[in-house]
Every structure is written in structure tokens, then in C-alpha cells.
Amino acid sequence: MGHPELEKHPQFWQRPGSYMGYYFMLSPTINTALAVLAVKNSTFFLHSSFLCLDINGFVFVCSGKPCPPFKIVILDEADSMTSAAQAALRRTMEKESKTTRFCLICNYVSRIIEPLTSRCSKFRFKPLADKIQTQRILDICTKENLLITNEAVSRLAEVSEGDLRKAITFLQSATRLTAGKEITDVVVTEIAGVISKETLNSVLAACQSGLFEKLETVVMSLINNGHAATQLVNQFHDLILEREDLTDKQKAAIAEKLAEVDKCLVDGADEYLQMLSLFAVVMQQMTQNN
């Protein structure tokens, strides 16, 4: 769903004499099994009913059905394999190229050795578009008889950042929280743990005031309300880019400070001090034209 480029390649793979493995580069949230099975069913549909043997923690004894002329080996989390294991896999792929197709699924491309990537057709799965997520969420709400506003649906697509699984989880949590009542964007914001636009606007207003005491009060309010500094950094970045009253030079200075604060937070720095440091730079940039 949302990756039409996958449907264009099976015809090429079925050409006589062509061999190419499949190399799926997915984010950690993509349903890898469904992605590979979709390719399998569209590519080798004649034998799809008995083609795939699932070995997921258990070894299943073959049922005695006749083997098809080719096999598909699906290796999930292939980036967890050691370099030696991947080198052995390379030799196996070369040896069994006449009868076997290999699907390598990974989250981190850099952990796959070059001899493997050069033998595979690569597919990179991008986050789903908001339109596709919205359609799927509305479909679920219709089938489950859920009451939800259009603003809440748009908010779900926004906070999930292209991750449909996360959006469905937020929807389920919001349903349990509202207990059958209408789901609003306020509920979704609370469930997702994101900072509301009103709160972000209050921070910008404090920065525009030029008063450090007011800025300190706003930061303390953020801490007391349980807002995570990392979440604030992520949302503040997009908010600054959208500001038309700031020049590119001012945005660059704030973005550089955002990167420094993000690094310090990852290293375990104090959130209160880092937010004060960040907003002090924002205040400096926003008030220098006054």
C-alpha cells in the first residue's frame, strides 16, 4: 500500500534467464512480511499456494507436497547477520541462483556488505503519504463504528509521521480513552505525547517579548507539564522553518542551535538548561530586528 513502484518489477523478474535477488530497505515500522508476500504472489502466482515455507523460530517438516521449480528464501533482519555470515550467504546465492530467489529485508543499508547489495534489486520503502493514511484510518473508523472528527484524522496522520501502525495504535488508545465518545484532535494530541500548537505559540511569544524572566517561566511550565525536550526540539524545527518573519540567516542560526541541543540531550544533558539555552538563541534572533 502506497508503494506502486513494487508492482512494476515482477514482469521483469519473470523474463527467461533473468536472475536478481530482492533487497528491501525498510524502516523498522514497515510490515516486512506483507511487503514480500505481495511481491511473491504477484511474481510467482502459479505456485504461490505452496511456495513459501515459514521458518520463524520453529522448523516445520515438509508435508510431502511437490516442490515448485524455484524457491524463495526470505531473510528478515538481514542487517543483523555478521560479515562472515553474509559472505557465506553470497556464495550460497551464487550456487543456488538457478533455483532460488533471495529476499533480504533490513533497516540499515550500511550493514549489508557490498557483494550482496550488488547482486540484488533494491527497494526503499518510504513513509506513507498523509492521503493514504487518512483513507485507511477513515476505513477503520467506518468498519469499527467510531466517532472521529476530520481534524482528529488529520492529526493522526500528522503525528504518526508516515507510520500507519503507529497511527492505528494511537487510534486504538484514543478509542479506549474516550469510551465511545467522539475522538477529537485534542485527544489525539494528548495520546501521542506531542506538544500542542498553543503551547509552542506561547513559547514563541515569550521569545518575542525579549524578557528572560518570562522565558524562564514558560520553560518551567513545559517541564512541569511533562513535555519531553526531545519532542520539543523535533516540533520546534518545523515551526521555525515555517516562520516568514525570520530570514534564512536567522533560521540557520536557530537550526544550528537545535542540532547542538539535540546532541546534548542524547548525551544526557539537563533538559531545563538545554531548553533555556535554545530559547535564548531564538530570542536573540527574533528580537535583533526590533
TrEMBL record:
The keyword ATP-binding applies. Residues 197-280 form the Replication factor C C-terminal domain. One of its GO terms (cellular component) is nucleus. CDD domains: HLD_clamp_RFC. Pfam families: DNA_pol3_delta2, RCF1-5-like_lid, Rep_fac_C. Belongs to the activator 1 small subunits family. This is Replication factor C C-terminal domain-containing protein.
